[in-house]
Amino acid sequence: MKMKIGSLLLSMAVVIGHAGGALAGELSVDDVQARIDTATPEEPADFSGRDLSRLDLSGLDLSGANLAGADLTNARLEDTRLSGANLSGANLNGTWLIGADFSNADLSGAQLFGPVVAQGLEASREQSPLFAGADFSGARVIARLSMGDAHGADFSNARLGADMKNQSMGLMRFEAENADLSNANFAGADLSHALLRFANLRHADFTNADIRDAEFDGADLSGARFAGARAEGARFAGATLTGATGIDTADGMVVAQ
């Protein structure tokens, strides 16, 4: 029951931030569009460090834009194109990301706590944001990315683990069930208590990662690398580990034969 409540809170609590006529950030949507219109490949639109919180930027083309350090809390980015954008250090807590394209975007050091990724409680491939090839290195991510596409993404040294000291209302954690995370880099990342059941994790790199109590049941981990990982309590029931390496050096990793 607590896990269900946690998922519900993760996907719904942030909706409150859009209610009650909350004020938007320092720029208007027209301001943002004007900067997009005058941008060039050599001089992309620059919103670095700006307050864009609660703005409805749905459907805009922010591909390649500089949003480093921007505040996008509770903003709407539904179907927004952000491929190749610089979002390093940006705050996307509670942001609506349904259908957004973050392919090859730089999200290093960014914060994504409880982004809205579906219209209802159930994730779908059609509504899930695209994070293929994105850079999440060093980011803090507590989000539902189930059914999504983040193949080739870099999660090295990212903080994806649940904060077990702050779970009174249910388990809020990184969830990526049935997601495509093939060739993703999780080296040195904290994935403790992460939910990765039935995910495509072929050739993923978990070198020196913390995967304690993570759930990999039914996942495809063919060719994955686990050297030096901390794996006490991790579950691998029905997982495919053909060609996986480093299992013998992973601390506490138990794989049923």
TrEMBL record:
Keywords: Signal. The keyword Disulfide bond does not apply. InterPro entries: 5peptide_repeat, Pentapeptide-BTB/POZ_domain. The keyword Signal applies. Residues 1-24 form the signal peptide. This is Pentapeptide repeat-containing protein. The lineage of its organism: Bacteria, Pseudomonadati, Pseudomonadota, Gammaproteobacteria, Salinisphaerales.
